[in-house]
Amino acid sequence: MHVSHIPPFLSLGTEEEEPENLFKSICGRPAVSTGIASGMEANVGQWPWQVSIRHGLLHVCAATLISQRWVLTVASCLRSKDTRKYGVLVGSLQVVGRPDSKTTIIPVSRIIPHPEFQENISSAIAVAELAYPVSFSPVILPICLPSSGVQLKNSTSCWVIGWSYSGIYQYRKPSYTLKELKVPLTDLQTCSDYYQKETLLHRVKPNISEARICSKLPEEQMDQCIGSRGDPLMCHVEDFWVLAGVVSWGLNCIRINEPRVYTNISFYKSWIEKSAISHTDFSSTPCLEVSGLPLVMLLPLIFLGLP
Fold it and tell me: Which end of the chain is more exposed for a tag (fewer CB within 10 A), N or C?
């Protein structure tokens, strides 16, 4: 077994990179990029930015790592102003039981909800600051944020991951291991038309606007129901992954034709940068050199099963 490439969080250069440039070179680029299968359980290292918001040892919601000290989720997952109630589990595919030696629960030190949350808008997002920065590794890496106002094409390869229900029946137990599902995007007009009809029947209508993204279930996997509050919608753009959206309310797994609606992260990019990224201390971002790298740091790459 050998490592065919050097993971992107290892610097190949001999000169020291600017920390912010280094961060941009590692976000959205997992150490493991093969073996992704729609509707199946995720493999170690495929989605290293997925984290779990905890209340004690209980999983509350998913969140996404966007820097060494900040995660992003929906504000309704962090209703309490007492940050001591929350922790963030990083580096794990499992959401039950106590963390093992390979995973860590980091306390939350600050919560910043978007102002929309004060208006009782269920799709409002929030960012949470960790008490101390994570150490990047093959199983802990940040995702990239999209450009402001980016318009994704319906043909863009997008995926949802989460620890939610699998199957169309709500009585089934949730998946305690992270699962992945490829979802085709659909245009906002089609999405709006669907909920316009539903409003007449059920008086329930999400606000479909440019601040939202819609997807549908793939026809061959109509029995899958992956995605609950805080779960990320991730799209592969060029050679990296971006956080396109987050699931802002629970899915109705019975109505398999119902479009899935996400909060559009690009619409809130400037607020995220102002609230979280501007507070990020890039000087603490690790810059590792391949030359002279201790064997103990290369072993995790081998055990991840890289070709």
Answer: N
Residue 85 tokens read as: 């109630």
**Cα–Cα distance measured from residue 29 to residue 51, given in angstroms and rounded to the nearest whole number:** 16
Distances (CA, A) of 7 to 1, 32, 43, 101, 190: 16, 9, 16, 23, 40
CATH numeric code, 158-266: 2.40.10.10
pLDDT above 70 for 253: no
Residues 54, 130, 120, 193: what is their CA dihedral angle, to the nearest 10 degrees? -80
- Region(s) of the chain under CATH 2.40.10.10: 10-35+48-143+269-303, 158-266
Residue 163 CA to residue 78 CA, distance in Å, equals 18
State in words which class domain 10-35+48-143+269-303 has.
mainly beta
Of 25-34, 63-72, 202-211, 281-290, give the lowest mean pLDDT range: 281-290
Alpha-helix runs per DSSP H in 79-162: none
Residue 278 DSSP label: G
Say which range, 169-173, 192-196, 200-204, 297-301, has the weakest mean pLDDT.
Answer: 297-301
Asked if 40 and 46 count as a contact pair (C-beta separation under 8 A), the reply is: no
Strands 240-247 and 185-186: unpaired
Distance of CA 235 to the CA centre of its chain: 11
For residue 292, give every residue at least 6 positions away whose Cβ sits within 8 Å of its Cβ, in sequence order, or none.
Answer: none
In DSSP terms, 165 is beta-bridged to 174
Enter the pTM of the model.
0.80
